[in-house]
Amino acid sequence: MQKFKSILKFLVYCLFDLFIFFAKKLAILFFYLKNPTKKTQDEILVVVSGGMGDLILTSPFLRELRRNFRSNKIILVVKIRISENINIFTNCPYVDEIIPYKNPRNRVFSLFLFVYKNIWKRNILYAFGLVSTDIFVKIIAETSKAQKVFRSFNYWPIKETEKPKHIVEKNLDLLSAANGDIINDNLEVWPSRNKSKYLQNLTEHEEKKIILGICAGEEKRIWPIENYLSLCSKILQNYKVNFIVLGDDKSKEKGVRFKEKFGENIFDLTDKTGISDLYQVIKDAILYVGSDTGLMHIAAALKVPVVEISCHPISGNRNDSNSPELFGPWKTESIIIQPLKSILPCVYRCEKKYSHCIKQVTVNEVYTETNKMLNIKNKNPF
Questions:
Q1: 306, 216, 90: which is closest to 298 by C-alpha?
Q2: Is the pTM here over 0.70, yes or no?
């Protein structure tokens, strides 16, 4: 049955590739019939899609792209799940223009209409479709009438035996394919100077702070709230710290539970911070503990040590989209805690839409690694 599904998936992807091929040729023909005078192609198109973490992970590519193509105009097309996430690029010095795509569905007509209105009028030299499983990236990049398209879009199933490569490296490989050279592959963020009232309250407390990332883009990546409460109790028995609870609007009730149990030791900022606020809050922390989420990648960009609680089993597919080897904390001191194996019916990855395999990670495991990180990184300053 599994083999049949793989063959069917392969055939569907081949048909889609054929459709994109003819759509691209038609787009080029239509454009040149309408604009017979050939113009110099000097603009560079970058197409990205994903959540906060995916967008943060594009920062090394954008920086190195600008360094290699200083005189070219760089246009960033972003498909965003949450409107706030477009602010990640607001102060980015490497991009000349940002074009957001806010339609949550990949309807073919909507995508081609978007390309017609926003892309075809431009003179695209190179189009880069950064690593994604979203067909949006492929359609926009391939139909952009660019002189050359560079993309890493895996329709074909990746072999489990293939050596994993982090998403940052995969994106930079695209630039290398365009004869660009890579000097710096560190993440970076671009905060604004504005501070909210929540940040002013935080600066009044001198205790060291630990970030708790209790949300995630998928429920299966969220560690149970009861475990976080038990973990905080154990930490407070040995360390004088405060906790900053960060999460989305779905995490509000969890934030209330933290506040009720720990009082002044908790700063509940669930659904209260913008992108720039998050940068400042996380920058001043001594440790991040929590899910694989955009908050974790911000912490990594700011060189804050990370203890990641992953839903992906150690015995699972190392090239899976939830694998820490692909999407783990990049270039910061980190410890990743994973279940040894998945819980049936899951096999190579956690297949459920709710907290499932991740529940195997115990409070004691996370406390042991958190304690180790606090002592090693901060030389026991408590």
A1: 306
A2: yes
**CATH code that applies to domain 198-378:** 3.40.50.2000
CA-wise closest residue to 167 among 208, 204, 123, 130: 130
CA distance readout (Å), 27 to 32, 47, 101, 139, 288: 9, 18, 20, 12, 47
- For each of the chain's 382 residues, which pLDDT tens digit applies? 544 555 565 555 556 556 555 555 555 555 545 555 445 558 999 999 888 999 999 999 999 999 999 999 999 999 887 777 888 999 999 999 999 987 666 577 788 888 888 998 888 999 999 877 677 888 888 888 888 999 875 534 445 556 889 999 999 999 999 999 999 999 999 987 766 666 666 666 667 999 999 999 899 999 999 999 999 999 999 999 999 999 988 899 999 999 999 998 999 999 888 888 899 899 989 999 999 999 999 999 999 999 999 999 999 999 888 999 999 999 999 999 999 999 999 999 999 999 999 999 999 999 999 999 998 655 544 5
Which one-letter DSSP state was computed for residue 222? P
Is 42-177's fold the same as 198-378's? yes
Separation in Å, CA 295 to CA 275, 327, 338, 355: 10, 13, 18, 19
Q: Angle between the 294-301 and 275-283 helix axes, to the nearest 10 degrees?
A: 60
Say if residues 365 and 337 touch (Cβ distance below 8 Å): yes
- As a whole number of angstroms, the distance between CA 270 and CA 94 comes to 31
Q: Within the chain, how many helices (H) and strands (E) appear?
A: 13, 11
Note whether 291 and 306 are within 8 A (CB): no
251: which 2 tokens? 């995490």
Q: What is the DSSP letter of 272?
A: -
- Please give the structure tokens belonging to residue 121: 């009028």
Cβ pair 53, 293 in contact under 8 A = yes
Please report, for the chain, the start and end positions of each structural domain, with discontinuous segments joined by +: 42-177, 198-378
CA distance 49 to 62: 14
User: What's the CA gap between 154 and 143, in Å, rounded?
Assistant: 18
> Max alpha carbon distance in the chain (Å)?
74
Would you state the CATH architecture of domain 42-177?
Answer: 3-Layer(aba) Sandwich (3.40)
